[in-house]
Write a structure and sequence with these properties.
This is Protein sleepless. By secondary structure, the chain is α+β, with helices and mostly antiparallel strands. 26% of the residues lie in helices and 31% in strands. It has one domain: CD59 (Ribbon), CATH 2.10.60. The longest helix has 22 residues. The protein is elongated and about 65 Å long.
Amino acid sequence: MQYLMLIFVVLLAFIPSITTLNCYVCNSNKDFGCLTDSNLAQFESQCSNIEDPYCRKIVQTVDSMTSVVRACGSKTGAKSCYKTAGNNHASVCSCNTDLCNTAANLNGQQRFMMIIQSIAVLTITMILLR
């Protein structure tokens, strides 16, 4: 019975969440408040009607002018962050936790959330196996 419960808990951890993802959605070309990571609450938005949603932050530099676009998107590539080369360049970061499209480097946050989730699953498993 204990092993059955353990298998159930482990499988439960792999079921995707049904809740919607919340991201910041804005464009600094239309609203300068989008440029900085502070005071973004006004740009919170639900990413509904998107399969496998992700939040994105794109920082673009064109002719030495920098703009920031924060948006909802679907499925990310193999890398969570990448940069384009050249005089006009962009850095694009994707993440899949609520309101995660603030900082430029999102890998640390994603790793932290994975560790917390793993600890939670292990703790629940240990409690149930007593």
